[in-house]
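Note to self: user wants both folds in one dump. Writing first protein now.
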Amino acid sequence: MVRIGLVGVGFMGQQHFGIYEGMEQAEVVAVCDKDPARVAEKAASVGGNIGEATELDLSKQRRYTSLEEMLAQEELDCVDVCTPTFLHAEMSIAALEAGCNVICEKPMALTVEDCDRMIAAAGANSRMLFIAQCIRFWPEYEVLAKMVNNGELGQVISARFVRQSPTPTWASENWLMDAELSGGAMLDLHIHDVDFILSLFGKPKAVVTRAGNLVTEGEPVDQIFTAYLYDDFACAAEGGWVMPDSFPFEMGYQVLGEKGMLDFSLAKEPMLTIYPFDGEPYTPEFEPGTGYERELAYFVECIESNSAPARVTPASARESVRLVLAEVESAASGGAVEVG
């Protein structure tokens, strides 16, 4: 049984808690949040963009308002860091130095330097560090990766990704709206597609980004459109959290290959369709579930088998942060930024 200490019981922490509750191989033995109301025996639900908000029963868990105290009092196999982004590096490093494996929510950190510190701490303490880039585990995106990698789509001609949301007002003390704490929509939301593009297509030669700022204090990072410059196909991603409150959260893609086009959108039914050039449209088979469920099950298995996670390495998550920051630079300068 993998003993887990969960840090941060907001929207994402509550999602993780519910998933662990359904696992036979893992148990949340302790929870931690600076807000005592979130670690009460009956913790109020916190809403978000994907997943149901439900009240938590924390009566079986030991409850803390200090990470340091939790690390000192508990014998943990893993610490799950679901706190605001500006706390990721320090909390992950503290847990690694306490001898715990760590799963940390995306984005890995606000800076490449902090990512490097996290990687160094994992190595120095011989512990595993896993960044929860859930889209790599989302079933419909796994279908795309499989069809690109095994040639079912043929040579890719163009790829377009989208991720759009109403303004996320559910965050504690509205931290998401402060770019210095969250990195804005670029690092918090758009990084999902950046990470997936990198994992599927590799590093582009350069990026060209245009961005607008409507709601976040700080840099213009609320609405983003980026072209990723590859030699042999066209690739773009659009994302942001400036949509009206009545607009439903949307994520999706359209990838055109020589053999057909794979289309995914939360806004249509069926959500996933392959349109072959030869034959009728159909929905590829895939296992149901969410990327949240699949990524946590994967890392728990890594801990049980003492095998370093290969599907999302700390180095690859670091590169996703680095590419987003190149997009921030491009948006500010108005020109293309090479990705060395």
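First done. Writing the second protein, which came from a different request thread.
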Amino acid sequence: MLNLIQNEWMKLWSKKATWVMIVLVALMMIGSAGITKWVQNQTEPTVDWKQDSKGQVMYLEGQIATTNLPVDQLNRFKDQLAVEKYRLEHDIAPVSKQSVNGFIGSVPDMLSVITLFTVIVAAGIVATEFSQGTIKMLLTRPVKRWKILTSKLLTVGIFAIVMSAILLLFGVIGGYIFFDTIPGTNLEVVNGNVVEVSFWGRLLLLIALSLVNVFVIGMLAFMIGSVFRSSSLAIGISIFLMFMGVNVTYMLSLRFEFAKYILFANTDLTPYVGNREPFMEGLTMPFSITVILVYLIIFLFISYWSFMKRDVTA
């Protein structure tokens, strides 16, 4: 299996397109840091965090006084209020958006570009074997078909992780080039107590959770490419669903309870960390993970059944 993965990995990195993706990621992160800094200089004056925090306290107290808030939202407001009061009482500044950590902290929000690149790789890693005719030579090796497909699937997963690491690396580089180091600490409520949050620990956790969405969309593209043997079809459908799936699901959630069972209502696990708002009221991380696993099992079953049972030598 390791030899198969190594072979797929070498084939992947022998393509110019893979290196173009790395260059694009580097340019995107460095350019994003520069543009963000320029925009901040033009439009965002330096704000006294204490005044901003006092304003948040007044706003949250007003919201909590509203009697018709859902329980989940009321609890989030109470946690936010506790955090803001704790900051003021202990003189703990938040992480500034105009700081190195402020920009680096935005890296998880930029993983959509990695999702796009993963879709391209996942859609083509099987389909191109058929379009180029190399599948016949690949299947002449004394290796079971499921091992061949598994090696390709694992290669896609490793690619997504490596590209995410590259994204973070250039995010850090861009942050230190354009931004100043300003002290700041993230706080959150845990078991009723306000605690400090490790910046790097939370950042890596958010990246890991964001990778779940990357893997799911990549697995969808992998399945479509395996079944229809067309990378262009797999890329087109996957990208369309990536951009439209969440929007359509959100509109359905406004009227229908069943929307919570749709895949795209559950792929973003980051709202379950810290004081954030989930996609729909009532969703929990165990529920979302269960839904994701069910869909992944279906995707895997279809992919392996198609590759092993159909006439792949044709």
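Dump finished. Worth passing along: Residues 2-44+97-308 form one domain.
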